[in-house]
Amino acid sequence: MLRESLPELLLDLALEYGDVMRFRDFSLIYSVTNPEFVREIRTQAYPKYTKNTIEDRVIARTLGNGLVTNDGEDWACQRRLMQPVFSSRTINSFDTSINKLTAQIAKEWDAKASSDTVWLDRDMSRFTF
Fold first, then answer.
1. Which residues on adjacent β-strands are paired with residue 6?
2. Which of 22, 55, 75, 118 could form a disulfide with 70 if both were Cys (CB 3.0 to 4.6 A apart)?
3. CA–CA separation, 74 vs 95, rounded Å?
4. Residue 114 falls within a domain, yes or no?
5. pLDDT by residue (tens digit) across 6-32?
6. Any domain includes 122
7. Would 42 be classed as within a structural domain?
8. Is 22 helix (H, G, I), strand (E, B) or coil?
9. Residues near 68 by beta carbon (within 8 Å), at least 6 away in sequence
10. Do residues 31 and 21 lie in contact, with contact meaning Cβ atoms separated by under 8 Å?
11. Which of 78, 80, 75 is nearest to 46 (CA)?
């Protein structure tokens, strides 16, 4: 099941085994692909799950101790402080830019041959930045 990239491998595993998987690499790894499960884990169930993993600690060294990397009560406090940024009024102010970029990426994908690979991870990273 060796693939060119980790996203391809994870996609193949998700298609074969479903939304929640557990496997061993250098450590025990859980992969959750269902968006509702991810939302619950990352936002609602933070006391039950930790971001205290080697990956999160490495990311925190670059990003700092913000919403993405923080954990527990500190995360909950930061999330409450940031809540106004996530209001409908604020988010809706980005819709023109988001729609323009979405249309641009969709046009690029449509221009590709059916045999061409779409690197979703790269395009989504470009989109979010």
1. none
2. 75
3. 30
4. yes
5. 778 778 888 999 999 888 877 787 888
6. yes
7. no
8. strand
9. 59
10. yes
11. 75
Q: Three-state DSSP class for 117?
A: coil
Number of other CB atoms surrounding residue 41 within 10 Å: 16
Structure tokens at 63: 């990003």
Structure tokens at 52: 């205290």
Q: In the structure encoding, which two tokens stand for residue 60, read together? A: 């925190």
Domain, as residue range, for 110: 94-129
**Token pair for 33:** 């692909």
For residue 49, what are its two tokens? Answer: 């799950």
In terms of DSSP H, where are the helices of the chain?
Answer: 6-17, 35-39, 54-63, 72-82, 88-92, 95-111, 120-128
Q: How many domains does the chain have?
A: 1
The answer as to whether 64 is a domain residue is no
**Angle ∠(11,86,45) on CA atoms, nearest 5:** 55
